[in-house]
Amino acid sequence: MLRRCVAATALGIAIALLLVSTPTAQTNYKVPRLPDGHPDFQGFWNNTTYTPLERPKGIDREFFTKEEVVEQMKRAAAEESEQTTPGTVADVHYDFTQFGLDRSQAPVALNLRTSLIVDPPDGHLPPMTEEGKRLNAARAEARKRAGAITDAAQNQPLSVRCILMDRDGPPMLAGAYNNNYQIVQNPGTVMILVEMLHSPRIIPLDARPPLPQQVRQLEGSSRGRWDGDTLVIETTNFTDMFMFAAQGASADMKLTERFTRVSDDTLMYRFTVDDPKVWTRPWTAEVPWKKSIGPIFEHACHEGNYSLTNLLRGAREDEKRAREAKPASK
Amino acid sequence: MALIVAVGTIAALALSFTVAGQTPASRPAYRAPRTTDGKPNLSGVYQSITEAYWDIEAHSAAPGPVQELGASFATAGGLGITDGPLPYKPEALAKKKDNYANRIKLDPEIKCYLPGTPRGMYIPYPFQIIQTPTYIMIVSSYARAVRTVYMTDHKAAPADSWMGWSNGRWEGETLVIDTTGFNDLSWFDRAGNFHSDQLHVVERITATDVDHLSYEATIEDPQTFTRPWKIALPIYRRVEKNAQLLEFNCVPFVEDLIYGQLRKPSSN
Lengths: 330, 268
Known about the structure:
Number of strands of chain A: 10
Structural class of chain B: alpha+beta
Shape of chain A: globular
Shape of chain B: globular
Order of helices and strands of chain A: HEHHEHEEEEEEEEH
Number of domains of chain B: 1
Distance between the termini of chain B: 86 Å
Low-confidence stretches of chain B: 1-22
Mean pLDDT of chain A: 88
Oligomer: heterodimer
Mean pLDDT of chain B: 91
Number of helices of chain B: 5
């Protein structure tokens, strides 16, 4: 009971905090600058959001009212704080409120948009090409052939395998919790440290060429440049098993990310996916990142991946029991 | 008389510099290019060239633990980077020997686990230093290991970790990094040299010319060793024009090794 009260209080504070500021550009905002004159984005940021990538069915507006969004966030926060019932297995596994796994405990930028996708204007992914459909059907077929997700480690999602997570991307999208980032800048380099999987994105700004075509990376090859006060990062050279393949993208995707600091506590993150193999046109999404506090901790996911071991061991144990039970039932 | 004293003092100074620095006393003082805040600029892509990743102590060449890999995974002989044999406590030395005997099962590197500190500085892969006035990031391509060196916001380690919690400061030309808060899971090398969670590492990194760093570290771990000991090695800049860290996310490469025995027998 006490815990629920604490959670409810924390929830109230979180909602109150997020009401203080909105991601709309501060009028006459003067971005802080580094000695080399470029905007200073350094610090800790959080991209937690309640806004879905695609516009929900039945909504045909670009924006909700502030009142509607606050109500939705309150409702979602209340649901998440009630995730577990004390004394149940779920409660033992993850107490969302206690371990900060519910979104209301994170800094959240108020986003009035009905979808993260801003282009196409209908808030939906553009239609898939025939080639894109074939590619994704082949991927689905390969997954099916590989068997159940508990048959082998490789059948699990990249996140469960501690290889990549949504927060790493790129594009970098929030997950349910721990959407923490640190940006450091020095002349010639921007580094974005993603807390999940201690993923260091090191982005050179010296106009060097991308990696050779045959060198493929899970996080691609990123090159950055300044477009006025906006940091533009272009990424190519993905592998076929990269994170955004889950959204249907191909290894030939070209990603363009744009960071603009629009207020002291908001960094606007906008990305365009150009993947003509899969989508009939490029599409663009926008997510405000909210200023947060550090530090970033070491997220040694793979080193402590007991869950994957136990998932597989549990499945093998179940199979063994089923085999042993058969003769007895005859 | 005064002259003799002065000469004696200079000789003593030169001697103490040699011993403390493990570097030739004749080394001319090098002044590194400066960052905008006036500190030596150590940013860049570097790599150690040493056989110490096999064994930080002086060692002979030896066959590798995997027969099928023949000479390509055999141990190259090396002079070591320590200041003598490691001063293990007797029970710790027994564990080191057991680690060596079972290294193919126990070495965290084989499982793509984070390398720890200082091992991350001399494993045979490049690393990058990204320097700012408040944070100095040291990123290894191996396992994407990240160290954050806190230059201003010094605090005690809030939790144990593989790479440790690093507080840094400048002493003239030298970056001094004091690291604590380790877990007891990382090793120093492929020979099973290990530490406990009482490990305390103080590193001193100094640019000796435009392409070289002098790296020294004092290792203290009263649970494992009878006294503190030192390592010292040069670190080399990767001078290729297009030097950069490539992704070495090794987790997918070790899944069959770690989880293979839990695979469903009929599945492929």
